[in-house]
Amino acid sequence: MKIRTISFDYSEYDDATSLRGEDGRLVAEARDAALRAYAPYSSFRVGAAVRLESGTIVTGSNVENAAFPSGSCAESSAISNAVSNHPGDRPVAIAIAAMNSRGITPQPVTPCGRCRQVISEEESRYGKPVRIILHGESKTLILEKCSDLLPLQFSKDDLRNDRQK
User: Fold this and answer.
1) Domain range holding 30?
2) Residue 4 lies in a domain
3) What share of the chain in percent tops pLDDT 90?
4) Which of 29, 64, 75, 122 is the catalytic position?
5) What are 108-117's pLDDT values in tens digits?
């Protein structure tokens, strides 16, 4: 038996106003997207904003339905929006912001497992990292790649029939 360790580095900002330029704009777009979420059952609204290589920003919001918890996550919605409407324009960063009944959550929220897999697929597809910006009212975290959130991820290589056993 071998014991192995997986670790990663991330940046932490205590004040979102210190995020400038593209990152600050992406966070603002994610916050706006959270306001547009449809969350009548949980009152937990999430917004995501994806910056594409061209500089275009696309957004997504969570959408709940009566068959709760079935619905669409903001992160997956934003990535789907990018893939559907901007084919070949690689995602370079995604910002995520969540709101509860009191406003933006104090701590950043991370994508669910399914959304991590969706973002990870974009990294795999283009062979380049997608920067993750997790925004909360009291701090913002920045990870340089999604694989930090999803180590040992399931990938297209796992589907190959000719893999060595």
Assistant:
1) 11-152
2) no
3) 80
4) 75
5) 999 999 999 9
